[in-house]
């Protein structure tokens, strides 16, 4: 398996009931995912509620995660922001021990032009001590990274090695797949459409659902990557309702509810996020039983 092919999981950050980081549960989650057959982990992406952690907490979570993973799988750090200078400074100060790449979402809220997005990532690429994976998630950032901008960055900076694509825009994906450099990785950032994205040439997924169902999800992705889409379809279809529930009342509230039911970690979130409703939690529990 090539680097960053297969199933990556954007890990949740478990919290104790009082809101402090639950490091025992984080270790349990890491082992749950590695034992479940995933290919790599992402620490403190959006799913990890990174926006609600202090700089010191992030530093501690990054260090603990690297130690707990202990090079058993590849490890990616989520470092992003809408202040380019601050993001570059954070990347320069990052302790890379145990990490293989940095995942960086495009700037949120500012709504930069495509040239602004290019210059933001240019500054990151020139400062980064590790390979960079871009992250296009316009539903959260407010602005989409165009196929042209992605191809331009992939061509101009060899340490920009791929993109987590979560736009759901197949017109953009068609253009990106056609025009990107051959070695540039396109990674699905949208669980429900990972199968069709791999059919188009994506090399895998960075998943939310995989937190709860690492074995089922990674087995499906492996089948897709061998071209066995017919073999992957039963698992894909069986997880449709579960996947919908993961996002129905916000992420990572849904997957934390599933993880609580599975006994991996609690469902505490930091405000402004809150746990799912009792009815949604019950629906999630039922779906776990259905999928097995």
TrEMBL record:
GO terms for molecular function: 4-hydroxy-tetrahydrodipicolinate synthase activity. Keywords: Amino-acid biosynthesis, Cytoplasm, Diaminopimelate biosynthesis, Lyase, Lysine biosynthesis, Schiff base. InterPro entries: Aldolase_TIM, DapA, DapA-like, Schiff_base-form_aldolases_AS. The active site is at residues 135, 164. The record marks 46, 109 as: Part of a proton relay during catalysis. It catalyses: L-aspartate 4-semialdehyde + pyruvate = (2S,4S)-4-hydroxy-2,3,4,5-tetrahydrodipicolinate + H2O + H(+). Pfam families: DHDPS. Coiled coil: none annotated. Gene3D superfamilies: Aldolase class I (3.20.20.70). Catalyzes the condensation of (S)-aspartate-beta-semialdehyde [(S)-ASA] and pyruvate to 4-hydroxy-tetrahydrodipicolinate (HTPA). Homotetramer; dimer of dimers. NCBIfam families: dapA. PANTHER family: 4-HYDROXY-2-OXOGLUTARATE ALDOLASE, MITOCHONDRIAL, DIHYDRODIPICOLINATE SYNTHASE. This is 4-hydroxy-tetrahydrodipicolinate synthase.
């Amino acid at each position: 398996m090539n680097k960053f092919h297969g199933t990556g999981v954007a890990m949740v950050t478990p919290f104790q009931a009082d809101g402090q980081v639950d490091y025992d549960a984080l270790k349990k989650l890491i082992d749950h995912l590695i034992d479940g057959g995933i290919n790599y982990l992402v620490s403190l992406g959006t799913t990890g509620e990174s926006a609600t952690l202090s700089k010191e907490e992030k530093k501690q979570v990054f260090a603990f995660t690297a130690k707990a993973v202990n090079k058993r799988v590849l490890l990616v750090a989520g470092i992003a922001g809408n202040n380019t200078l601050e993001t570059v400074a954070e990347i320069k100060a990052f302790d890379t021990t145990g990490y293989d790449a940095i995942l960086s979402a495009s700037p949120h809220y500012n709504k930069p032009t495509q040239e602004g997005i290019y210059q933001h990532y240019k500054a990151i690429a020139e400062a980064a001590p590790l390979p960079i994976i871009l992250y296009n998630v316009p539903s959260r950032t407010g602005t989409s990274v165009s196929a042209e901008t992605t191809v331009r960055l992939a061509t101009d900076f060899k340490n920009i090695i791929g993109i987590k694509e979560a736009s759901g825009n197949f017109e953009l994906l068609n253009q990106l797949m056609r025009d990107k450099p051959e070695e540039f990785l396109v990674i699905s950032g949208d669980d429900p459409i990972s199968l069709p994205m791999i059919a188009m040439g994506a090399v895998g997924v960075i998943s939310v659902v995989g937190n709860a169902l690492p074995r089922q999800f990674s087995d499906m992705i492996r089948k897709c990557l061998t071209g066995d889409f017919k073999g992957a379809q039963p698992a894909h279809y069986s997880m449709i309702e579960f996947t919908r529930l993961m996002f129905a009342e916000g992420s990572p509230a849904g997957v934390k509810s599933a993880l609580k039911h599975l006994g991996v970690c609690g469902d505490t979130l930091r405000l402004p996020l809150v746990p799912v409703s009792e009815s949604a939690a019950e629906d999630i529990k039922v779906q776990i039983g259905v999928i097995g």
